[in-house]
Design a protein that fits this description.
The chain has a single domain (14-130), classed as Alpha-Beta Plaits. It has 135 residues and is of the alpha+beta class. It contains four helices and six strands; from the N terminus they run βββαββααβα.
Amino acid sequence: MQTFTREYRSNRNVVFDCHYHVVWTPKYRRPVLGGAIGERLKVIAREVCDEHEVLVGAIEVMPDHVHMLLSVDPQFGVHRIVKRIKGRSARALREEFPELKSRLPSLWTNSYFVSTTGGAPLDVVKQYVEQQKGK
């Protein structure tokens, strides 16, 4: 896994330091993401992020929602990485865990929450995401 710190990254045209807290839920907020499904989702999300040079600072999968702390190239866009994670994970998880097909017409809602980390120290946001399991 790549390192995740507050430091400038760049592509050909842009120098950036963009960090996002992203949250999304299964359709009808059904609690279907526990156990092996949640663990597999983490693997898929990290694979997609690695492919697109998106850094993952933290990821927690709760039974009814997902939290991620991401560093995304602004020219690629946070909306694209969320769409790709949700798309690939929906296909893979529904194929690998057939019980998801019978419980939901589609795995994810179309919507998601995203917030820049702004002035909050990254370690505070990371700690918040990592502590979601304890709630």
